[in-house]
Write a structure and sequence with these properties.
five-stranded mixed barrel; 5 strands; 2 domains
Length: 184
């Protein structure tokens, strides 16, 4: 069986077993997908160093008919966005953006505009310090792409947050971090 080549950004990593991971991706071509990376937690794994939050990768995926979880066969990092990891607030922002996308996108529903928004956000965070206006901008852009936008950027951001679940905890922690940095 020949796999499908895709471009994807890692949204979430979930331990599946002692040696394997479930990787949730936002792919440019197919939207949100889940893959099983068998053996990914082994030190000698061909996935070692390639599967990490915020990584943008080329991946080779084998579909399955029995499950929504496909098989990850190969991956190559296109961009690791290492600059995001230099500032805690930027890591929180990237995690929040990933959670927003993960919570608002259905599986296997192509959303290339949202993929592009996430890549632009990660590139920004890779080289610039996060601030509250950047968070609101991302939320408003995502809200517009999801069809819950209004004329006001702040109202659109507020509307998006009203649809979120677990991402709100990260949003609060991010807001606290930004607030602390500005009070110094």
């Amino acid at each position: 069986m020949i796999g499908r080549p895709l471009n994807g950004v890692v949204l979430r990593l979930t331990r599946f077993s002692d040696t394997s991971l479930i990787v949730t991706w936002l792919s440019q071509e197919e939207g949100k997908i889940k893959t099983a990376a068998r053996g990914a937690r082994r030190p000698s794994s061909p996935f070692a160093g390639k599967l990490d939050l915020f990584h943008w990768c080329e991946l080779l995926v084998l579909p399955t008919k029995r499950s929504e979880i496909q098989t990850l066969k190969e991956t190559r990092v296109i961009e690791d966005f290492a600059g995001i990891r230099r500032r805690y607030a930027n890591m929180l922002a990237a995690a929040y953006f990933a959670e927003c996308v993960d919570e608002t996108i259905e599986l296997e529903h192509p959303v290339p505009e949202i993929f592009d928004l996430l890549i632009r956000a990660y590139r920004y965070l890779n080289g610039s310090e996060i601030d509250a206006s950047t968070v609101t901008f991302f939320e408003a852009e995502l809200g517009h792409l999801l069809g819950i936008g209004s004329e006001s950027r702040q109202l659109t951001a507020d509307s998006l947050r009203s649809h979120l679940g677990r991402a709100l905890k990260t949003h609060q922690e991010l807001s606290d971090q930004i607030g602390r940095r500005h009070r110094r």
